Amino acid sequence: MAAGARHAWRVAAGILVTRVLGYVRERVFAHYFGNSTTADAFRAALRIPNVIRNLLGEGTLSASFIPVYAALHGRGDRAAARAVAGAVLGLLLVATGLLALLGIAAAPAVTTAVAAGFDAPTRRLTIGLVRILFPMTGLMVVSGWCLGVLNTHRRFFLPYAAPALWNVAGIVAMVAAATWLVTPALPIDQRLHRLALALAWGTVVGAVLQVAVQLPSCWRLVGSGMSLRPTLSHPGTRDVLRAWAPVVLGAGVAQISGVIDTQLGSFAGAGGVASLGYAQLVQTLPISLFGVSVAAASLPALSEDADAAGAEALRARLAAGFRRIAFFVVPSAFAFVALGPVIVALLFQTGRFGTNDTHLVGAVLAAYGIGLLGSASAKLLASGFYALRDTRTPVRISIVSLVVSTGCAIALIRPLGPVGIALGASTGGVLNLVLQLATLDRRTGQILTALERRYLATAGAAALAAAAAGVATATVAAATGPVPRGLLAVGVFGAVYLGAALLLRHPEAQALWTRRR
Asked: How far apart are CA 516 and CA 456, in angstroms?
């Protein structure tokens, strides 16, 4: 368990580097674009090629590639592991190359389908941005292959820190374009369009840098002589593809959910898609920092437990991972619900992003907070199924959750706008959590024992006290600016939560305090 925690902290450290720079990138984006229709266009354009990235990249590839590659490597069969790694990479390059060409050609039809609510100028800009961004998908999928190789060899920091270069490239592109390509004499729409095109090209350059920094380490770890011939001759490659197909289907459900959110957001008026995008960026910080980090560090060990030690060891590792996720994500959810506008003002209120935008995005963030624990723990619980060589059950659960969340979003969008879309997503996230836990309980034994439920209640009680303290602090500091007010409220929230969790003897709080000392 100690090694798993150490690996999870390395993943979290890499994600933290990326997310901090990602926040800087998004604050620069908010300063220049605000909640404008150009921001809507860029968010929608980035969503479309990201569907392929998420279908074929790290989220799905790691679930099918790591167990096979790790098993071959663990048995000492380095030649077979090298052959499987090379063949999988070759197949990825062929598939993503063809899909990128198809995406560039079909950009008008795809944009119309995904963002049907956009007006004609916004749709034209989105089509142009999609054509620039689509080649990025192949590079991001290669980055997912790098993550699989590096994680198998217990190299956890680099693959999660590498996307920081993607963020840096975007920041440089926006600042450079605002300095040299945009003049005050131009109409505001033309200025924003030029900035959006520059950001799209900078994003592609960032993807190149993200892959380039990882490939040398992967080449050394896999070994010399790796062939990139896209062949299915090795049984291990066929095993990867057989496991990959249902995982891709499950990820496809999640991507369909994101596309539906974008499509519904395009009907929510100007700024609908952009407001969802800003809130999702904040929401994904605890999901990536804690949910993804624990799941990524646990998957190789979960696979070993399922093969060697049986259901009891698998259950214990899942319980420990869930407790670790909940300790950090439960307070994040309370903070989003109680302090949504305060957090949004702290992060984004600058330039063209004004007070009205802050209130709207803050309400969307609060709605996402309701389902945060379900979203953050989904990858860990799905990894439990993958370790049991069951990639179909998470797909079925995801489909049920998607149907429910979409129905709720459609019902709520008219009265609540983008907030209703977020509430629908949260409903699906909670349902996904309940169904995954219930199914795993039948397979491995009860994951949330009485002790684990007590720890969950402890985290909830501490988070409730912290939320009350944070709201009181924000109220008292209402006369200050958004940055000092936000820093003060969030700082008090964090201090009260950690103090209350220590008083209630939560094991994760005690471990964190010991590590700090």
From this structure: 22
CB 30 within 8 A of CB 350: yes
The torsion region of residue 354 among left (phi > 0), alpha (psi -120 to 50) and beta comes to: beta
Give the pLDDT score at 514.
Answer: 74
Contact 93, 149 (CB under 8 A): no
User: Mind listing the pLDDT tens digit for each residue in 209-222?
Assistant: 988 888 888 888 87
If we measure between CA atoms, which residue out of 42, 351, 23, 349 comes closest to residue 202?
A: 42
Q: What is the spatial distance between Cα 58 and Cα 65, in angstroms, rounded to a whole number? A: 10
User: Which H or E element spans position 367?
Assistant: helix 355-370
The whole-number pLDDT of residue 1 equals 45
Question: What are the contacts of 432-435 at 24+ separation with CB within 8 A?
Answer: 432/374, 432/378, 432/397, 432/398, 432/401, 433/373, 433/374, 433/377, 433/378, 433/381, 434/374, 435/397, 435/400, 435/401
d(CA 80, CA 290): 33
CB 217 within 8 A of CB 152: no
d(CA 293, CA 5): 10
Q: What is the maximum alpha-carbon separation in the chain?
A: 69
pLDDT at 444 exceeding the cut of 90: no
Distance of CA 515 to the CA centre of its chain: 27
- Residue 505 region by backbone torsions, left for phi larger than 0, else alpha for psi between -120 and 50, else beta: left
pLDDT at residue 340 is higher than 50? yes
**Helix, strand or coil, per DSSP, at residue 110:** helix
